[in-house]
Design goal:
One of its GO terms (cellular component) is endoplasmic reticulum membrane. With 159 residues, the chain is mainly alpha-helical. It has helices spanning 6-36, 48-77, 80-103, 109-138, 143-155.
Length: 159
């Protein structure tokens, strides 16, 4: 098995750093909302507008481990660039979610649904990657070679 180099993880690392910065931004939004709506520490309830901002931030924190695991596994076992692009779309979905939830409960849904789809895509890519590695290791089947052979045979093209 080949060693992982920095070049193999640079895009995933960038998305990871951006995700951390985004979570920091969400936390600051909660603090500003707390001051705006006069919700003293350590209270977690108060004005409905504050509670929506807080809930959006908490939900983002709850999804963060699942996103990170899916992002890194799909990057390492499937494709770094594709995984990083899906990761960026996920970060955009979180932005839509938090901004939408800050306005109303209903407006959170488009961002939430897009984010779940991104996590599902990352998890599926990771599973494809795991399967590819396991088949290569234990069954001596290389799916990439098999795929190229099937495509070449059916389309008479060279890949």
């Amino acid at each position: 098995m080949a060693a992982v180099t920095l070049e193999d993880i640079v895009f995933t690392s960038i998305v990871t750093l951006l995700a951390g910065i985004q979570l920091t931004r969400f936390a600051r939004k909660v603090g500003k909302s707390r001051m705006k709506h006069k919700v003293d520490y350590p209270k977690m309830i108060g004005d409905e507008n504050f509670e929506r901002v807080l809930r959006a931030q908490q939900n983002s924190l709850e999804f963060f481990p699942v996103f990170m695991i899916s992002l890194w596994m799909s990057s390492l076992f499937f494709n770094q660039v594709v995984s990083a692009v899906v990761g960026l779309v996920y970060l955009y979905s979180r932005h839509l979610y938090v901004e939408g939830y800050s306005r109303s409960v209903k407006e959170r849904l488009p961002g939430f649904k897009l984010g779940v789809r991104c996590i599902m895509a990352l998890a599926a890519m990771a599973m494809i990657g795991f399967t590819t590695v396991l088949l290569r290791m234990y069954a001596d089947i290389d799916l990439a070679v098999l795929f190229r052979t099937v495509v070449r045979r059916n389309l008479n093209v060279s890949i």
